[in-house]
Amino acid sequence: MFVKTGDKVKVIAGKDKGKEGTVLSINVKKNRVVVKGVNKIKKHQKPSQNNANGGVVESEGSIHASNVKVISKKEDK
How many other C-beta atoms can be found within 10 angstroms of the C-beta atom of residue 27? Predict the structure, then answer.
């Protein structure tokens, strides 16, 4: 895969076209990436011990790797 965790990428296709963010995680088998601030999804959760009130939780969903373009690589240390 051409993108690594921590790379800065730009979305080139889909509903979030033009947005930029850093790669949080990758799924090599499914060829998908999770980008910070892109493809936000809302999930309804029941009350539990961790979340006493429950409610709607918003998080990033994955997008296909072909829909992103690398802007800059993470600095090698």
Answer: 12
Q: Which residues, in sequence order, are CB contacts of 52 under 8 Å at separation 6+?
A: none
Q: Please write the tens of the pLDDT for every residue from 50-69.
A: 888 889 999 999 999 999 99
CB 66 within 8 A of CB 2: no
State in words which class domain 7-72 has: mainly beta
Would you state the torsion angle of the CA atoms of residues 2, 8, 39, 47, taken in this order, to the nearest 10 degrees? 110
Residues near 51 by beta carbon (within 8 Å), at least 6 away in sequence:
45, 57
Domain boundaries, the chain: 7-72
Three-class SS state of 16: coil
Which pair of structure tokens corresponds to residue 43? 């999930």
Model confidence, pTM: 0.82
